[in-house]
Recover the amino acids of this structure.
């Protein structure tokens, strides 16, 4: 079945540092999504990407949809303590009903 | 106003019992989902309903039975609970081709 490889698995950084994480797949996706999950809550969408090559920003977050449609990355600039959480990439194929999630990147930010 | 709500938030029960989790969305979405998140935080889709019709059933044991009485509700009934069923269960909803909104999760503990 379709799988997403998300890396790194976890990151420990200092406040103010920039962060980069990525997802790769052996399958093509039509949509790439990045979610953040805070402890005890459900994932919340950060950025959605709909076109190959698309680069989208949301405040300090920037994400790109890879040209091959098999990868995506998320950058967070100037991290702050509230960036702590689990970041998930997700891909949607044709039909839009099924979303495959990566295993998550756990981000720890030290003040 | 809560977009996707789930009840209960916590559920502790004995092996062999039958239990239900309820989900409601007030976003007017056509599609609803159930996800299971294990102890390693891996999110895996279980079911998806579109306009009350089952469209995704991901090799879930038939002890799990979803029911969608209307477009705004998707309930999950679990028979003969097993230890391995312990996890956090998330309900989500979306319009097709669009982001999924997740509920707060139901933490199920089977003793």
């Amino acid at each position: 079945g379709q799988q997403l490889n998300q890396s790194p698995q976890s990151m420990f950084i200092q406040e103010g540092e920039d962060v980069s994480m990525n997802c790769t797949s052996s399958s093509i996706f039509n949509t790439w999504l990045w979610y953040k999950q805070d402890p005890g809550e459900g994932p919340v969408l950060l950025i959605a990407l709909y076109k190959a090559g698309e680069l989208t920003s949301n405040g300090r977050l920037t994400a790109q949809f890879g040209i091959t449609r098999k990868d995506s990355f998320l950058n967070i600039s100037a991290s702050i303590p509230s960036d702590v959480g689990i970041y998930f990439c997700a891909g949607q194929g044709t039909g839009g009903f099924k979303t495959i999630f990566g295993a998550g990147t756990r981000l720890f930010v030290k003040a | 106003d809560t977009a996707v709500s789930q009840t209960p938030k916590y559920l502790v029960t004995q092996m062999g019992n039958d239990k239900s989790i309820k989900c409601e969305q007030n976003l007017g979405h056509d599609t609803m989902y159930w996800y299971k998140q294990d102890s390693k935080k891996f999110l895996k889709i279980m079911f998806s309903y579109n306009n009350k019709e089952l469209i995704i059933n991901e090799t879930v044991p038939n002890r799990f039975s979803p029911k969608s009485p209307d477009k705004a509700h998707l309930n999950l009934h679990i028979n003969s609970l097993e230890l391995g069923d312990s996890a956090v269960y998330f309900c989500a909803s979306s319009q097709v081709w669009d982001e999924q909104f997740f509920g707060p999760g139901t933490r199920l503990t089977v003793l």
User: Anything to note?
Assistant: Chain A has a mean pLDDT of 93. The CA atoms of residues 91 and 97 of chain A lie 11 Å apart. The radius of gyration of chain A is 13 Å.
